[in-house]
Amino acid sequence: MVEKLLEILIVDDNLDFASSLKNILEFKGYNTTVAGDEQTTLILGREKAFDLAIIDTKLPDISGEKLVEKLSKLSSRTEYIITGQALLETANEAMRQRQVIAYETKPLNMDRLLAIITQVAECKQTEEV
Questions:
Q1: Are 103 and 95 in contact (CB under 8 A)?
Q2: How confident is the model at residue 98 (pLDDT cuts 50, 70, 90)?
Q3: Measured between alpha carbons, how far is 118 from 40 in angstroms, rounded to an integer?
Q4: Domain ranges in the chain?
C-alpha cells in the first residue's frame, strides 16, 4: 500500500506564523499550502481537495468559523482545526460544527498539534483502504 501524503491548508493572516508552521509540517512530510484571507482560501478550496485545514479564528475579512462553513460546502472530506485565542463558548461552538475536530489556542502546542494531525492522517489512510 502506498501511503498518501496529507494535503494541509494553513489559513492565517500572520504570514510569519503560517510560514513557520508550513516549514514544520513539510519537514514532517505533509504537503502544505498557505492562504491569508477569505478570497485566496476559497479559490484554493475550489482548486484542490484538502484533507485538513488549520484556520485562525480571526482573519482580516472573516472569522475562522464562518470560513469553515464556506469551505465545508466546497468539500465534505476536509477536517478542520481552528486556532486562536477565544472564549470557551466560541471554542465549543466551533467544535459543534461537524468537521471541526479541534480548537487549539495560540501559542500552539506543537506536540499536541502534530498528534492531532497524525490521527487525521491515520484516519484518512484507513478510509482509502
A1: yes
A2: low
A3: 26
A4: 7-128
User: DSSP alpha helices (H): ranges in the chain?
Assistant: 15-27, 38-47, 64-74, 88-96, 110-128
Does the predicted model carry a pTM greater than 0.85?
A: yes
User: Hey, what's the cell of 63?
Assistant: 472569522
- 107: exposed, middle or buried (C-beta count within 10 Å: 0-12, 13-18, 19+)? exposed
- CATH code that applies to domain 7-128: 3.40.50.2300
Within its chain, how far is the Cα of 58 from the centroid?
14
7/49 Cα distance (integer angstroms): 8
pLDDT given for residue 51 in this prediction: 95
Contact 13, 59 (CB under 8 A): yes
pLDDT given at position 74: 93
